[in-house]
């Protein structure tokens, strides 16, 4: 570089590095050295990836570098940079690849922004923009009818609940479908990524809903994370198709706070051909609640022959409370199989409810009611006690293979006082070695209260109990979270495993999850394996363990011995 450019390079207000195509640092400016504490002679010739912690290094090499090679640039990649004192400094990386020309070799130019400083500046701009918007709103409000403002959601510009009521009157003069759309785990976005990210998600959802509908359709935001859609429709098949199209639109990834987040929604649909707007909304809302109970991320259509009112849920809650006390719960066990040798290494305990009149109920029929009421703690305590008792029987039988037993732990259980003491007492009571018990927690449970979750999991780990992150890939747990928690395995969600060999996106997500698990030194477990093609793909990726119908459905305890001896 000529001397004027050298001066600009060194005096830039942000960190600046250049590297070869294989990542060796060739130049670094004074700003970066001052910020990071490193010495120039230590960095020149070293690998750029050494400046990143292992998780971010994997992200950089598997995502950013391929994009750099394809498009020539990446922007604002969120990472930590390890300083000379080994502390992590939040940073945003923007990189450009300059091809070889005029005899000069290709190089990669990396700009490093201090994330706190950049975000503070952006927040100042956002604050300034909001002040301008507020001033404009006041001017418009002075000229516009006050009633109009009362009918509009200020964030998205969509009708609010009051505005929806006005639109529903004319809309229900003919046959329509009413959709109630509730964003799954929206609170987690606000808590883990911030309120600005939550607002950005709501704006994205509003835009996607509006874009997916025909002219004349109504879209309203009626609460923090709930939207209503009304569109002309004459039959149930068309209503279901519309609901599934809406679900697909909202399941596409969205970039929030520099991270690509996979979102989902629970959608309830109801056909209406009368002017009873309240009844149509009630029916669609009941269907939406049923979608949540049955696992979220799905569509349910209102069935006029059934109801799902608050009274029904209250009745179900009372029956469940009695059912736990009366011994109506039972456990089934689904084997977990090592992919390298086909050996059954453990089982997951799965609860069922033998309802006196409705028969054997899967957890989707009652878990949501239990979680909302707090009864999930009593339910979880029963499952843990029963699973440990059965595992202890197997462990004491010298002819039975030694198996780990995995038990799901709800978010309420994870942060409840006395969890570790309760687990210890159960292990002692049944004389089960702690190493044969694995507790599964979801990503959502981890990020809801990270400090409490970390404390509980650390104490359980010190006890010798294994820890598994369930449904991995569906929530918002970052690399930083995973490095904070004492985790033994990641369970890749079945929704991605089902797409192996069918969807390039799902295949890439599964491969990235396996690589991430190994990068942080834990097992990768694939849930919902149903075909030999999926199994072979997992073997090629280096996945450690499979679980799913391909090997076995959940079975009674007496059948486990036979399966483990295969």
UniProtKB/TrEMBL annotation:
Pfam family, one: EAL
Coiled coil keyword on record: yes
GGDEF domain location: 174-304
Keywords on record: Coiled coil
Residue span(s) of domain EAL: 313-566
Coiled coil: 118-145
InterPro entries: Biofilm_reg_signaling (IPR052155), EAL_dom (IPR001633), EAL_sf (IPR035919), GGDEF_dom (IPR000160), Nucleotide_cyclase (IPR029787), PAS (IPR000014), PAS-like_dom_sf (IPR035965), Rev_trsase/Diguanyl_cyclase (IPR043128)
Name the UniProt record assigns to this protein: Diguanylate cyclase (GGDEF)-like protein/PAS domain S-box-containing protein
